[in-house]
Amino acid sequence: MNKLNIENISLSFGGVKALKNVSFNVAEGELHAIVGPNGSGKTSLLNSISGFYRPHEGKISLDGENLLKLPSHIIATRGVGRTFQHSELFKASSVLDNIKLGRHIHYSKGIFSNLFYWGKTRKEETAARKEIEMEIIDLLELESVRKEPVGSLPYGVQKRVDLARALALKPEILLLDEPIGGMNREEREDMVRYVLDVHDFWDVTVILVEHDMSIVMDISDRITVLNFGQKLVDGTPKEIQSHPEVIRAYLGDGVSAESLSNSVKE
Amino acid sequence: MDYFLFLLITGIATGFVYALLALGFVVIYKATRVLNFAQGGLVMLGGYFCFTTLGQFGLHPLLAFSLAAIASITIAILIERYLLKPLIGKSLLSLVMVTIGLGSIIEGFAIALYGTDEQAMPEVLPEFAVSIGSVYIPSIYVWAIIISSILIVALFLFFKFSNLGIVMRAVSNNQPGALSMGIRVNHIFAISWILASLIALAGGFILGSISMMSPSLSIVIYPLFAAVIIGGLDSIPGALIGGLVIGVLQLLVAGYLGDLTGASFKTVFPFLILLLVLMIKPYGLFGTHEVERL
């Protein structure tokens, strides 16, 4: 069954067409990667799904509901969590407070109980706190830094906090924007492991935007390739690897399929 | 010595009110990055709301203040919704021009409705005599300290512990991050304006009671702005200390140099302090140092 259907979306900024008639589907429980050269529209696509950008044409439906008809802040409550390329964390707050904010949408909405921290809100917060500490912090190994202000942490750890915060939303679909970009080798391996753990144990559908082709080929179930705002092709890693159009977009003409798969294997 | 003590205590009282009002300025700046030069106008308007409900309508204070609060909240929502929301993403200069213009409009309305004469705020707070040594302190100054410090502490607790306060800090810290958490960022903008207008209402009532009600009460924006910049614009403790420093120095200067320089020097003086502070600490005493990364 399809979790997310993207149908013919187009998005432009002034004269620049960021996305042109892009359509693809993401199945329930899938780890779906979106790849493409710089400026091909990967992040624009992610921003469209999470409601930051508004495509002027097309339809993005999550479990059959058109997300483009919803106000931006509601999209998160429908179970769309995301991380950012340059982690947009609350730098002055502690790791724990950052993660707890992700849980904010699941609290009761009563102004007074929120203001004065009474009754239901308090109970919910205690329950949420336990869950956050036990599951998310454990899973992402953030125990030792939970009281630290996020701004003081190394880059790789900040990316992990970003993921933890998105998880606190209890997302059904998780959008990851270059989770391993700018990391060293060790941090990359850790992050890939975390992403796989989250995908397996939390039962979430994951959409991953990533540059590193070897990792994408390794871990994704399906891949969509974008180029100049258009979908080039989608398919399994195997299909993508040998697809002539992909090779042309990435490496230019005159390169054989073998050399791409070799470069991928390295 | 007695004179000094009197000036010091009345200065501290004024400083507390400035500190409270400076908080209102900082709340809006932190959440929305708008420099609200209409804050002085809102203070004056808040004063007149109290003046009208208490004096002209002669209502019970509780009812009068509730009505005044409803009026302030309505104004704040209208300003946010119809003046500032359409300007989201525009340059800082346009936003500043809008708030300066708004301040003038509010002042114009007040002059049209109430005239330029000074009018006394009805006295609803119980009077009591406070004297330190041989110095007699009018009770309104004591009330100013009490009311302002209660509200300041309440605001601190609100931002530190309440969910709404934490969400507001999150928005001020990082808007895309807040949006991705399902926080209604535009609601938070409106709530900051509401908060600032309620602070202005309290400040307007106190300042109107200390001096007299007149449309020129809106010039409180000048010492206020100096206080906020000295404190460091985005720092809440900075706003408090800036407010206190400016309040005390302003009264001392008016008390000792008033005969020499004329009364208006009181308005200019905070800017002299501002210049001095900015020469030594360009981001104010507690402001965030902007680090440019290339």
Q: Which descriptors would you attach to this protein?
A:
heterodimer, A: Rossmann fold, 2 domains, 11 helices, B: 294 residues, mainly alpha, ABC transporter involved in vitamin B12 uptake, BtuC, two-stranded antiparallel sheet, 2% strand
In quaternary terms, these chains amount to heterodimer
Shape of chain A: globular
Per CATH, the architecture of the largest domain in chain A is 3-Layer(aba) Sandwich
* Apparent shape of chain B: globular
Low-confidence stretches of chain B: none
| Order of strands across the main sheet of chain A | 6-7-8-3-9-10
Given as residue ranges, the uncertain stretches of chain A (5+ residues, pLDDT < 50) are none
At CATH level 2, the architecture of chain B is Orthogonal Bundle
> Domains counted in the coordinates of chain A: how many?
2
- Report the biggest beta sheet of chain A as strand number plus sense, adding barrel if it closes: 6 strands, mixed
Gyration radius of chain B, in Å: 19 Å
Binned, the helix content of chain A reads: 40-55%
**Counting H and I runs of at least 4 residues, what is the number of helices of chain B?**
11
What's the CATH class label of chain B? Mainly Alpha
By helix and strand content of chain B, what is the structural category?
mainly alpha
Order of strands, main sheet of chain B, comes to: 1-2
CATH topology call of chain B: ABC transporter involved in vitamin B12 uptake, BtuC
